Structure formats: C-alpha cells, structure tokens
C-alpha cells in the first residue's frame, strides 16, 4: 500500500503531517514524500523543511495520494500534471485545506462536492467543484478536508474506510485526538457561521459546542466524517 | 521572541509540527529547529525528516522551548543537558506527549504537576513529576501537553497567555481547529476512562462527548487549557 504525500514550495506543513501521523504507523503502509524535485521543500512559514525522497516522475502508481494546501503560493504545475496522471489508478485521492484546489485544477472535482479552507471557497468553485461546508467530504474515492488541522480527521476517516472503525479508533487513541469542547470564534468571512449570525443567532450560540444537548452518542462514521 | 523547537532522533513529528503551525505565523516569532547536530533528523516512523538549523550549543537563550515526545526512542542526553542550561532563563518551557519525560529528566518537574502520553504516566512519576490527567497542564512557566495532537491545544494556550485570547482565536480559526464531537475509544490502560468504567459507567458513557448537557458556553481559558 503506497501512500504518496505530495509536497511543493510553500505548502502548509500541518496539512501533511496530520495525515502522516495517522497513516504512518499502520503496518504495510509505504509512505513516500514526493515533489517536483527530490530533497528539501520549504513550507509556507519559511521555517520548516520536509524532505521529498522521490520525484513525481518516480511515483507512477500510488494507492493513496494526499495533497496539502498552501497560503497563496504559486501553483506548482508539475503537481497538477502528476495528479492527472495518477488519479485514474489510485484507490483514494485526498486533499487537505486548499489542496483541493490542486485536485480541482487537475479536473478531478468537476461537478463534485468538495471542501477547502474557508477563505478559498470561491476559488474552489471557480475551478468546477461544488463547495460543501463539512470538515470532511467523501465522494467516491475522493476525500477532501477543510482547513489545516482537519487533515487529521480526513486521515482517520480514510483509515476507517480502509480497515474499519477499530483501526481508526486505535490510531485516534494513540495520538490522543480528543480535544474537549473546542469552540470556534466567529469570523465575518466564515460561511455557515456567518449564515447562522444572519439568521439571528447570537455570537454565543455560534461558538457553542456542537455536541447534542441530549449527549446522545453518535455512530462512529459520523464522529470521524464530520 | 526566539522559539526553539527541539528535535532528536526518533521524535514524533506531529508533536512538534502542531505547535509550529500555531506559533510560526505570529509576527515577531523567530522559530528555530534545534538538535544535537544540525541537519536532518528522522522521526519515529522513519519516513519523515525535519531539518535542524542550529545545534543546542548555538541556541543559548531561547524565550520559548518546545520538546516533542517519542515512541520508546533512546534518550538524547544532549537534549537533557541543554534543557538544564536554558530553562532558568526561558519565559516558557513546554512539552508535548512524552516530551515531559525530557523535562523531568532535566529536573524541571520535581514535585510539579504535569502530563504526558497516557501510556507513559508511571515513567513520568518515577522521574519526580506528579502526573495530572488533563490535556494541557500549566504550572508557572512550565506547560505540558498530553499525547501528540494535544500539542495544538498547548500552543493555543501559550498564545493566549502571551497575547490574549484574540490571538489564540485568530490562529485557531486560521487552522480550523474545530473537530466536532470527537469521542475517544476506551482503552484498558487509559487511566481515567478506565476509572470511570470501574465506577460502573458504561462504555457508551465513557465515549460520550464531554460538552456539558446544558450547552453552556465555557470561558475562553477553559476551552484552550483543557
């Protein structure tokens, strides 16, 4: 099971390290960082480098592809071309944050529901995708995640689909992915939150934890996928 | 504001990239990856390398130190010695996951409340700390986080303490750290969960989301710190 983690200059490092940490300790997973050129690739902060051990030309039939997002980096056309080449034979093609804009640029999201970082939804739609406001969006073999940290959720969803919930739960426990009562501040440009505000809900409503008041346990797929 | 992110062979990469992503885009933060030797340092999966741009000897007065954990790697005594040297003059000394075991080995946690990955609590206590089951534990200038992904929470807590809640909320929104209804599977060795099970609560109780049934909004420090 070859899992190709794509890199390009200006990528956002947590986008790709979240999935790496979820996927890398599973037996049989062959993880490879792949980029236009092998060697060090610098992230959007300019302070962190990851090492690509293979070029796009050397990875011709990955089973899984993960594409991270960026912060207004110049588009790497070599990654777009590689996605067009390898997507037809992948088992799963995935993205985190604005990585979905790469998928869209490669024609993979034409008319397909997908998500991205909340700042770039219009760009995603201009490239043919249907923006869907969920933390993780699954459509066939294509899984897209919202911004940055949601790559962890995407990869747990992927493990669930590949091996069932026990595998995903084991990794979730190993990495202690159990933030309690996270609440998200409201931002005028954040869709959805903004919509709720327009509907007359208060700021306190909007940042209230989303767990149901009844405390009912949701089923596993819902926990991982949304 | 120099923020030193410590590396050593066998470190767990999400432990350090979570804090990096939270801290690196803040203006005025000088981020430096530091290790016993400059150059590439390989993580516990063997598949990921980060690049240390400075040696411990070259970073003598960091304002903030972050120490990541590992998965049963041999202890790097150079990191222990460096922590003894720099801790007296740091503004904040922090750890993620079993990184607290490095802090304890350096004598920083003698009789101090601290947390670590749930698999290594006894080792932390043998080294003099008082294990405290919280996602983030703050005691003076020392902040320790539980396993792996909780480094994101630790760094958001740190931003809150350094600049106030607006800074922390801005970054939280930027990285979309908003997992909804995460629930943690029960594990026999996980303290706390285990304790609840012994008290006669059901498995469904134990994995129920922790948000209060009333849906009351908790204050910001609670959201970030626990």
Question: What would your notes on this structure say?
Answer:
2 copies of one chain form a homodimer. The first copy, chain A, has 226 residues and is of the alpha/beta class. The first copy, chain A, folds into 2 domains: 2-174, 3-Layer(aba) Sandwich (Rossmann fold); 193-225, no CATH class. Chain A is built from 9 helices and 11 strands. Chain A has helices at residues 13-23, 77-86, 99-105, 121-126, 150-163, 165-174, 193-198, 203-207, 220-225; strands at residues 2-6, 30-35, 39-42, 49-52, 54-55, 64-67, 92-96, 113-114, 130-131, 136-139, 142-145. In chain A, β1 (2-6), α1 (13-23) and β2 (30-35) form a beta-alpha-beta unit. The radius of gyration of chain A is 17 Å and the shape is globular. The model of chain A is unreliable at 191-226 (pLDDT under 50). Chains A and B meet through α1, β2, β4, α5 and α6 of A and α1, β2, β4, α5 and α6 of B.
């Amino acid at each position: 099971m070859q899992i190709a983690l794509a890199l390009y200059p200006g990528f956002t490092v947590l986008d790709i390290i979240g999935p790496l940490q979820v996927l890398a300790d599973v037996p049989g997973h062959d993880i490879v960082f792949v980029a236009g050129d092998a060697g060090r690739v610098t992230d959007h902060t300019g302070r962190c480098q990851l090492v690509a051990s293979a070029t796009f030309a050397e990875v011709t039939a990955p089973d899984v592809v993960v594409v991270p997002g960026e912060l207004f980096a110049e588009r790497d056309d070599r990654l777009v071309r590689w996605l067009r080449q390898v997507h037809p034979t992948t088992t799963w093609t995935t993205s985190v944050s604005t990585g979905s804009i790469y998928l869209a640029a490669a024609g993979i999201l034409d008319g397909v529901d997908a998500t991205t970082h909340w700042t770039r939804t219009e760009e995603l739609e201009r490239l043919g995708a249907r923006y869907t406001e969920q933390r993780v969006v699954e459509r066939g073999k294509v899984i897209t995640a919202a911004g940055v940290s949601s790559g962890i959720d995407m990869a747990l969803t992927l493990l669930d689909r590949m091996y069932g919930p026990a595998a995903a739960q084991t990794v979730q426990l190993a990495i202690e992915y159990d933030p309690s009562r996270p609440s998200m501040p409201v931002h005028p440009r954040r869709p959805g939150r903004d919509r709720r505000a327009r509907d007359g809900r208060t700021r306190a409503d909007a940042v209230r934890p989303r767990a149901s008041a009844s405390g009912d346990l949701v089923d596993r797929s819902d926990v991982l996928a949304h």
